[in-house]
Amino acid sequence: MTPNEHVAAVAAETDRFTTVVRSADPTTPVPGCPGWTLTDLLRHAGSVQRWFTVLLRQRVQAPPTSRDVDLKLPERAEDYPTWLTEAGAEAGATFTETDLDAPMWAWGADQHARFWVRRMLFETLVHRADAELALGLKPEIDPDLAADGVDEFLTNLPYAASFAPRTAGLRGDDRTVRFTRTDGDGDWLVRLRPDGFGLDAAAPNGPTAPTADAGVSATAADLLLLLYGRIDRSAPEVTVAGDEELLDLWFTNSAF
User: Fold this and answer.
1) In angstroms, how far apart are the furthest CA atoms of the chain?
2) Sheet strand arrangement including 196-199
3) Closest CA relative to residue 69, chosen from 42, 49, 96, 41
4) Per-residue model confidence (pLDDT) at position 66
5) What span, in angstroms and rounded, lies between the C-alpha atoms of 53 and 154?
6) pLDDT of 65-120, one tens digit each?
7) pLDDT tier at 201 (50, 70, 90 boundaries)?
8) Is 52 within 8 Å of 60 (Cβ atoms)?
9) pLDDT score for 197
10) 3-state per-residue secondary structure call for the chain
11) For residue 219, which phi and psi values (nearest 5 degrees)?
12) All domains of the chain in start order, with CATH
């Protein structure tokens, strides 16, 4: 997906999120985020959008030393859906004013402004799915959008140690885990080394692909929800193969 497609998807996902929660009980627990209610979920999603928007406006070139942002938090729980809509509108206006290909500090692999748009997109999408799951609804995620989310997650996870410290445990003696999309093209090989881990972009895919030590396959949407811990690998829609200890290592330490 292109940065402009990410921009459009942020707006669409924000709209879907607010539509889902607008008439819901704000005290509804959110299983995907233990201890949170829908109000907490909305507060988090909107705060992330406003924080990322500030970073984009400032075009930061180094890790920020403060997260002091005017979040404009509403006083009433029932006003949070509108507040999230306003956060999305502010983000959209900033996207329009920003050269998304401009160099910029980011905690992940892509050191350009576009990183923050893509990151905002999947923060919003996953939490929209959290809201739907909390309300007993099955999340519907566009397959190609979900595949882009899988790629974004696996690309950036090796850089997430500052807020996901357990990723430091993702080490191995040249061990590999392959994630395969079953509803279209999509194959990601993660290699665990003694000094770290990451996507093996040079590994061939398709019939010539080498056998991985462990494999996980599902639709792109289910892979995305699995990687974010919203479904378990024992779910019927997920197929696993190979080294179970390696899979235990991955899922124990890859929480985002």
Assistant:
1) 58
2) 196-199, 187-193, 175-181, 214-218, 239-242
3) 49
4) 79
5) 23
6) 877 888 999 999 999 999 999 999 999 999 999 999 999 999 999 999 999 999 99
7) confident
8) no
9) 98
10) CCHHHHHHHHHHHHHHHHHHHCCCCCCCECCCCCCCEHHHHHHHHHHHHHHHHHHHHHCCCCCCCCCCCCCCCCCCHHHHHHHHHHHHHHHHHHHHHCCCCCECCCCCCCCECHHHHHHHHHHHHHHHHHHHHHCCCCCCCCHHHHHHHHHHHHHHHHHCCCCCHHHHHCCCCCEEEEEEECCCCCEEEEEEECCEEEECCCCCCHHHCCCCCEEEEECHHHHHHHHCCCCCCCCCCCEEEECHHHHHHHHHHCCC
11) -65, 160
12) 3-140 (1.20.120.450), 166-253 (3.30.1050.10)
- Determine the Cα–Cα distance for residues 30 and 135; give it in Å rounded to an integer: 8
As a whole number of angstroms, the distance between CA 217 and CA 45 comes to 29
Tokens coding 233: 């690998």
How far apart CA 190 and CA 20 sit, in angstroms, is 35
First to last CA, the chain: 22
d(Cα 226, Cα 221) in Å, to the nearest integer? 9
The pLDDT, as a whole number, for residue 106 is 98
213-221 average pLDDT score: 98
Asked if residues 83 and 75 have their Cβ atoms less than 8 Å apart, the reply is: no
**Tens digits of residue pLDDT in 119-137:** 999 999 999 999 999 999 9
Task: Kindly give, in sequence order, each residue whose CB lies less than 8 Å from that of residue 2, ignoring residues fewer than 6 positions away.
Answer: none
CA distance 136 to 131: 9
* pLDDT confidence tier of residue 206, bands split at 50, 70 and 90: low
Distance in angstroms (rounded) separating the CA atoms of residues 56 and 6:
15
φ/ψ of residue 240, rounded to 5 = -120, 155
